[in-house]
Specification:
By secondary structure, the protein is α/β, with parallel strands linked by helices. It contains 14 helices and ten strands. It has a four-stranded parallel β-sheet, with helices on both faces. Strands 5-6 form a two-stranded antiparallel ribbon.
């Protein structure tokens, strides 16, 4: 049996926590909060900060964690800590405490702890990259597209702290698990990554037993073929383990309320501050070039596949054809080319958002006939309809907007949509809205 040696990762989380506790307790001296029992206050905020951190997994930052995930954890932590902070006044009967100074203290904490957290994460990544510290030596068992991409990440991202040692091709005639195990032990490998698609059940059992008996971390690479869910959810019903195929954040009532509030506020802003004056102007230009209605509506499928009318500014000449616009489409007017290029034609969909048919961000709704076609051809296409469709989405800012020219276009769009459905957060919505606005200003190739 081999033991893990030279590991300092166990000290990283306590170090991060200690730094935050020092900030919590020393920052207070710069504010005239008028706390009568300072020691009690210090113990109170320190203890509850630690409890909240454990509950929210605040310090559970992985090597590969994205910035948006870290920001989300910061928001969760401080939203609850704000309630904890002001609860001290009533719980310990401290009426003389200055609420304004306490608010200033809280804002200072947000800035200092956020800044410090990102600085420490940055320094840790540089420590891994430049000095080769906090390293995990890894091997990969399997030889396919997924393992190649993973190995490329290991080699291209030294700041993650993974040192790729060797790949074992399962399908080769010379592959032998015993030789693989010998290499792992002799080279003090820390983590083993296995491609599930290439291993038999018997081989998987052998690898699991070996890694557990030799204190190695074992991770699996799923066979995602075209599209695969982000993760399985493991729960217990009494003593019976049960796996759920996916968990949708927007099924949670708090998340649903948060997203709806964001939709309503942004929709009201756009309708009052932009569409109130833009609609008469766009309507006049549309009428001058071609007679017909200002708005265009079309049946689309939304949440739970329910049909609704999606609104747009009319960008084409009145026609009986309901086909999607293609590159160089003769039906598109001059005004239509401009409003489609800048995505102005989509703005009336904020009416759909206010009505509740759509959300500001979500999978883009397709025409009914296209939905029926794609549902037959694209695996997991219907997963998109677990949430409300959006005016913009993750797929659109990732280069998959507009006309579906090849099957690859719709397959990639669905991949991004499923990732969004399973990974929703308010910060992700804000990021998508900002990037959509920037893309609209500079114009996009497929906006025609």
């Amino acid at each position: 049996m081999s033991n893990r040696i030279g590991r300092y990762s166990g000290y990283i989380k306590p170090l991060f926590c200690l730094v935050d506790l020092l900030i919590l307790n020393f920052t207070i001296i710069f504010f005239e909060i008028n706390i009568k029992h300072k020691l009690l206050f210090s113990i109170y905020i320190s203890a509850l900060w630690i409890i909240l951190s454990i509950k929210n997994k605040f310090y559970d930052v992985k090597r590969f964690s994205r910035v948006i995930q870290i920001l989300a954890s910061l928001i969760r932590q401080f939203l609850i800590f704000a309630l904890v902070l002001y609860a001290f006044i009533g719980f310990f009967k401290q009426p003389l405490i200055s609420r304004l100074e306490l608010a200033k203290y809280f804002i200072a904490l947000i800035g200092l702890i956020t800044f410090t957290k990102f600085v420490l994460i940055y320094l840790l990544s540089k420590y891994r990259k430049i000095f080769g510290g906090n390293i995990r030596k890894v091997v990969v068992i399997g030889d396919n597209k997924n393992t190649h991409q993973l190995i490329k990440i290991f080699n291209d991202k030294p700041e993650f702290g993974y040192r790729f040692q060797r790949k074992f091709g399962v399908k080769g005639e010379d592959f032998d698990l015993d030789n693989c195990f010998y290499y792992i032990v002799e080279n003090e490998i820390d983590e083993v990554y296995c491609s599930i698609a290439e291993l038999s059940n018997e081989q998987l059992r052998s690898i699991v037993n070996f890694t557990e008996n030799n204190l190695k971390v074992l991770k699996f690479i799923p066979d995602n073929k075209d599209i695969f869910t982000k993760k399985l959810i493991f729960n217990y019903y009494e003593y019976i383990p049960v796996l759920s195929f996916r968990e949708i954040p927007l099924d949670d009532s708090i998340n649903k309320f948060t997203k709806r509030a964001f939709d309503i506020l942004l929709s009201l802003f756009v309708l009052i501050c932009i569409l109130s004056w833009l609609t008469p102007l766009i309507g006049l230009l549309i009428q001058i070039e071609s007679k017909g209605p200002i708005f265009f509506k079309q049946l689309r499928n939304g949440l739970d596949y329910r049909e609704f009318y999606c609104y747009k500014y009319r960008s084409m000449k009145p026609s009986t054809s309901a086909n999607q616009a293609t590159r160089g489409d003769a039906r598109v007017t001059k005004v239509g080319k401009f409003i489609r290029r800048t995505s102005i034609d989509e703005l009336p969909q904020f009416i759909n958002v206010l009505k509740g048919d759509m959300s500001v961000v979500g999978p883009r709704p397709h025409m009914v006939k296209h939905n029926e076609e794609f549902a037959q051809k694209v695996d997991k296409f219907m997963v998109r309809h677990f949430v409300k469709p959006g005016i913009t989405g993750l797929a659109q800012i990732s280069g998959f907007r507009g006309e579906i020219e090849t099957k690859k276009d719709i397959v990639n769009r669905v991949k991004y949509d499923i990732f969004y459905v399973e990974s929703w957060s308010l910060l992700l919505d804000i990021k998508i809205v900002v990037l959509t606005a920037l893309n609209a200003i500079k114009g996009e190739e497929k906006a025609y």
